[in-house]
Amino acid sequence: MKALRPDARGLARAAAVIRRGGLAAFPTETVYGLGASAFDPAAAAGIFEAKGRPHFDPLIVHIADLRQLRSVAAEVPPAAALLARRFWPGPLTLVLKKRPAIPDIVTSGLATVAVRMPAHPVAARLIRLAGPLAAPSANRFGRLSPTTAEHVLRQLGPRGVMVVDGGPAKHGIESTIVAFERGRPVILRRGALPDAEIAAACGLRKVRLARAGAKIRAPGQLRAHYAPSAPLKLIKPGAAADPRGAAYLAFRRRPAGGFTGVEVLSPSGDLREAAANLFSALHRLEASGARLIYAERVPARGLGLAILDRLRRAAAR
Ligand code: TXA
Ligand code: MG
To answer: Which ligand 1 atom is at minimum distance from the Cα of 91?
Structure first.
């Protein structure tokens, strides 16, 4: 796999791959991102698979203009609009209420979506061609964030990921993430945009930094961050389960009847399809009014590890 030039042809190729549900890495001013369509759950599952991430962590959605912002975020509080006007395009990510069109796998089941408008001109052109992109840093899990196309190819090239080469990333560290609590900004992750600049723009002396124990945190760090309203119990596929008042999350095969709700993650046993369906299936089972959700263990390989990790978090409450 080779790097694509950031010209009209290279960008058209990357955009075509993304529109077909594939992945393409692209430069931003912070680090290189591994992008997929922000509206396609299976493509998002492909991101976790290519990264070898052991669990799902919500992804940042990258946009190129304010029209795209309206297609991903349902609400923009005044403080967020002010920060967007001041620092976008740039290394600032805003956590906003999401629109239903953003699939659950992108936000790990949260009601919010993290949104950023990158300043890199190549990123902006690609996003205009391909639409909003869900993208984490383009590295294998636990490895260094990539700041050149060569870094990306070394880690993800063997997985068939293509990269648009936009030269070395200017900042080399990730964006600053800001959420809003009762209209006030809270920094969830320090990054390339200094806290003081955010404070100054908001007319505040200081902006609060979310710490462990605070109400809003970067949710990927929580042991139980997506807890369905009913307790969840992990079982072996096909193990005996009492259907009365219970819902059932199957991996491949439907159980015998009597459950308040049943969801099958992937009849063909495809872990990528299972990952893409996981959060929406849990939402539907939760809505079935069950007092308990049985969830079958999926195979502990590839994306199955991410699914199991997620199910364990949902079971720990
Ligand atoms: O500079 C950057 O932000 C780079 C480039 C590619 O844009 N992206 C990046 O993504 O650093 P990633 O996936 O490595 O980090 C995303 C962080 C995670 O720690 C996640 O927990 C947090 O954003 N996050 C995503 N959605 C969130 C949400 N709805 N609420 C709170 N935190 C969220
Ligand atoms: Mg990262």
So the answer is: 1
What is the value of pTM for the model shown?
A: 0.87
List alpha helices for the chain, DSSP H.
8-19, 41-51, 66-72, 78-87, 104-107, 121-130, 149-156, 195-202, 271-287, 303-315
Q: Whose CA is nearest to atom 12 of ligand 1?
A: 136
Nearest ligand 1 atom, CA 110? 29
Nearest ligand to the C-alpha atom of residue 90: 1
The residues lining ligand 1, judged by C-beta closer than 6 Å to any ligand atom, are: 28, 30-31, 33, 57-60, 93, 95, 107, 110, 112-114, 116, 135-137, 174-175, 177, 179, 188-189, 218-220
Helices (H), 139-270: 149-156, 195-202
pLDDT digits (tens, 9 = 90+) for 67-114: 999 999 999 999 999 999 999 999 999 999 999 999 999 999 899 999
Ligand 2 center to residue 125 CA distance, Å? 22
Name which of 305, 26, 8, 302 is nearest 161 in CA terms: 26
Provide the 10 A C-beta neighbour count for residue 212. 7
Q: Which helix (H) or strand (E) holds 3?
A: strand 3-4
Instruction: Give residue limits of the domains in the chain.
Output: 8-209, 232-315
Rounded CA gap, 118 and 64, in Å?
7
Q: Which ligand is nearest to the CA of 188?
A: 1
What is the pLDDT, as a whole number, of residue 125? 98
**CATH topology classification for 232-315:** Rossmann fold (3.40.50)
8-209 has which fold? DHBP synthase (3.90.870)
Using CA atoms, how far apart are residues 27 and 30, in angstroms rounded to an integer? 8
